[in-house]
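Mods, move this if it's the wrong board.
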Amino acid sequence: RVQALNQQDLDRNFSLATTHLFKWMQAARMDMPWMQPGYRAFGLLDPPLPSRRLLVASQMVRLVHPGVLAEAAGDEVVTRCEVGSVGRTSIEFRYRIFFGERLVGSGCTTMVVVAGEPGRLKATPVPEAVRALASSSEGDDRTLLLTTLEGLPKEAPEGAYTLPLVVRYSDEDVNKHANHSALPRYFEDAKEAILADQGAPAALRELAGQQLEAVMVGYSSEARAEDRCEVRVARGFGEGALDLWVVRLAP
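Not the wrong board. Structure tokens:
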């Protein structure tokens, strides 16, 4: 998938926003002939199941070095996608991201195969035609992602920095819930809010000011338009890590 960069792809710091990377990763996998927009082709795979689709369970982007996203201006972004590990109801997609011909990052997305109506989706087996595409090796990005998410506390610590959030209708996708790329945007907004807040803890502001090296996201439940949430941020246990939780408060 080739994406020509435009002015609107750059953030207020003249850096390529990670939200766009996750969107282009999605576009790359949807370009596969057995996927297609709206999962039209995916639902036709044997056995045919018109409501069959995929939901993101977790994903990550890992950059070759911190600050490389600030080098994007003037380049085309090329995202290459392939199938990785395949479970009974899950599919891993692997990515290599280039600025022109220069490798700048890699990533992975673990998705769950589901069927049914939005709001009542249930896991269903991976079609055999897709299972045949599985990689025979475990991906390094997926191993890192799973290890990191397993070590992340389920809840934010007492005294975590908090920001209010209301899920927008424009955050939703065809599944009638906030698109997976909304979470990285919430993270980027939180980083900038912490930097702008003179009253935020100094250690947190120092971390928020660092250049990104990787973004890892785990999804535990759906969020929908008008959900009132709270973003909670704390210093991570890993060196240079910033941990973030999005917690639904209502309804």
